[in-house]
């Protein structure tokens, strides 16, 4: 018995909706793993701030998932082996493109803040936020380590 063709479409749409419900990170939000941890704190002065766009990581998960679901759905379209193979290939290509587009649509507005630390070093931090939140000369607090640092006023 053949599976309905609409199943992969619903699955791909569900992936997109699930991504839309993901909470947006901010300098004021913390993951469960960050709670209850002591982190180093430094103070400094903002040298500059500029708006940036934070793209999702290059995991290719969206494209791969879309390709698999598209291939499965496309393989049920035809009545012959040749039609099934052609449908699977077309479905995989289309599903991959849709999955990649869904993954790429989750870009976040961010800010790159260059801070001259009181200790003498100058660092640049990219984080979610608005460039209007920081001005040259602002005193800021820099918390965290190289892997997970944030700047707050």
Automatic annotation (TrEMBL):
Q: Which UniProt keywords apply?
A: Signal
The signal peptide annotation in the UniProt record is 1-20
Q: Write the protein's name.
A: 17 kDa surface antigen
Give the species this sequence originates from: Sphingomonas naasensis
